[in-house]
Amino acid sequence: MKITDLLTKDTIIMDLGSSSKKDVLDELAGQLKAAGKLNDEAAYREAIDRREQESTTGVGEGIAIPHAKTSAVETPAIAFGRSMKGIDYDSLDGEPAHLFFMIAASAGANNAHLETLSKLSTYLLHKPFREKLMAAKTPEDIIDLFEQEENDQNDEESEADGHEGSGKRLKLVAVTGCPTGIAHTYMAADSLKEKAKELGYDMKVQTNGSTGIKNRLTEEDIKEAAGVIVAADTKVDMAPFEGKHLVEAPVTAGIRNPEGLIREAVSGEAPVYKGSGSSYQDKIREGKEEKKAKQPAFYRHLMNGVSHMLPFVVGGGILIALSFFFGIHSADPKSPEYNAFAHALNTIGGGNAMALMIPILAGYIAYSIAERPGLAPGAVGGLMAATSGAGFLGGLIAGFLAGYVVVLLKKVFEKLPESLEGLKPVLLFPVFGIFITGMAMYLIDQPIGAIMDAITGWLNSLGTSNLVLLGIILGGMMAIDMGGPINKAAYTFGLAMIDAGNFYPQAATMAGGMVPPLGMALATTLFARKFSNQERSAGKTAYVLGASFITEGAIPFAAADPYRVIISSVIGSAVTGGLALFFGTGLRAPHGGIFVIPFVNGSAWLYVLSIIIGAFITAVIYGLWRKPLRSK
Q1: In this structure, are 475 and 599 located in the same domain?
Q2: In which band, very low, low, confident or very high, does the pLDDT at 113 lie, cut at 50, 70 and 90?
Q3: 0.70 exceeded by the pTM?
Q4: Which residues are catalytic?
Q5: Are residues 231 and 367 both part of a single domain?
Q6: What is the mean pLDDT of residues 450-473?
């Protein structure tokens, strides 16, 4: 896809009438709306403002690239505006901006769109090209310039491919990344590569952009590098760089000061990365920067463990659910319903995939805290919890315990001679980390198991009214952040209760988690005139995701209209969770959506009815509350 597929004559303003930053953003957004590229101009402008609050998109050299990725965009597009006199845009270099490129990426934009948008930033690095844009007379001239630049860049890339791998020059590696991953990421990468080439160095740059990691650094790349540069405002896996001279900076430094970063990286005076400290990336990782500290560290670590655990839960849970189709006891060799294939499904899903849940949960909680050295101690502690009866509670404790044990070990061993640095990750951290975590878990597994038994006994003793209240709370929690920490906390509690033999909480969490996407999908059907074509299309997908118990299917709607969507979803999910337990239904399968409904404990029809009622309530509340679409 070419840039000129997104930048068209009807999105070009040759002479902006604006005199301030706010005015130019309004004017460009208005041009996109007039060209039919936006379905909600106000929501798009809000998304643009949120991005500007993170850091200015005035990158210097007279250029500004405001951008946002949101469902308020009907069709991905670029708006171009030019101001000959210049506008004060709070640019990085403090100079007025003359060339403005407003990027509108839809929430469902594919990689081809996003990669095309990222090309834009690379072209603007060349001063002659910027001068030609300033001299252009018509929108057609602007489009012709981009077509010529794309052709020239393709020729240069082909020539560069033929000269790679000479191995004669000093090598450097770098990683760039910004919160949105559309503009700054690639501008910093190209700025670094261009300056490295000018200074006589070979450089490979990994970009952590919106389309994922591109040009990934290999172990060999890092080993051969004389220095490493990390110019990023997003989390970067730093573990591969341990023992290397490392320069860290915001992504804007990669754009504004590539020479300074490169000279520091090759000077031999850059600090050697030792895996922890108070570096720029460490602040991002631990949430110490004010703008990044939106969630407590506890929740970030928990989320990391749960997100890595979920594939095991989903895969194992679906296989267990499929085994139920042959009979609820078909996996039991002693049952008359026994079926060999069902037994195989249940063994793979329950005896293997599900058995890894707690070790993976604990391992990746520890990984989040202490990076790679925390993984083994955390997984071992989690396995001890799983096999001793300590269950999920024990797994959580093991994960956090192992993570902070390894953090402590890093501090204890930081003064070892540099010649022993290589022993830390392969010997010292695993041996001492597993030993300390294992001994601690050995001592506390039994008390934790007793606590789990007490919790299970209390839940089993609840009367109907208390169960309904529990269902309301768990159902509502599933909808508050749609896959976030509150959702995961409720879901983890449901899984823990399955592990303990109580199937009521999981029935409430699965039913409540199905409601948000189903409610949004139903709203796009019942109130179709209030939704764009793209949203109605997303609604069809949400039917499938909701039926499959993938609460995240409602996120595109929540991102565009968070307050109305979340409040509507919480109400519907809470009603569903309460009804599910009022009807006395339980669920022994950890996942599966509609695939496991025939096998709930209690009435499957009443369970389905509770989901339908909640989805209908959510759809009606949101549909009536939502503002009508503005006419184009």
Answers
A1: yes
A2: low
A3: no
A4: 67, 178
A5: no
A6: 68
